[in-house]
């Protein structure tokens, strides 16, 4: 047995802004410079990825989507958003470590 969890970032009204999938998408956009390429690499539809990025942009800003098609467009993720991703991953790692400790206690019960 083990403890498990999901973690996400909410706005002040309790609406989800960014979760694990969005973090993965943004990291892939940072790596590729492209929503299209990121969506392809993560096996997501371009429409889904584009709408998710627009939602994140409208809530927290820091994502510049450049139109232009092949070799002309691209997406840039600001330092602010990259710092947010880092904080998210730090929180995930910390919560995972705590739950791993308590999962071990569960499994030590005889």
Automatic annotation (TrEMBL):
It comes from the Archaea. SUPFAM superfamilies: Winged helix' DNA-binding domain (SSF46785). This is Molybdenum transport protein ModA-related protein. The lineage of its organism: Archaea, Thermoproteota, Thermoprotei, Sulfolobales, Sulfolobaceae.
């Amino acid at each position: 047995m083990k403890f498990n969890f999901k973690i996400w970032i909410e706005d002040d009204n309790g609406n989800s802004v960014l979760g694990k999938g969005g973090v993965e998408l943004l990291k892939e956009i940072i790596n590729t410079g492209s929503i299209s390429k990121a969506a392809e690499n993560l096996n997501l539809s371009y429409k889904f990825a584009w709408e998710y990025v627009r939602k994140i942009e409208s809530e927290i800003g820091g994502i510049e989507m450049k139109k232009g098609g092949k070799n002309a467009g691209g997406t840039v993720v600001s330092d602010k958003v990259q710092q947010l991703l880092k904080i998210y991953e730090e929180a995930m790692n910390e919560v995972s470590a705590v739950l791993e400790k308590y999962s071990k206690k569960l499994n030590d019960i005889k």
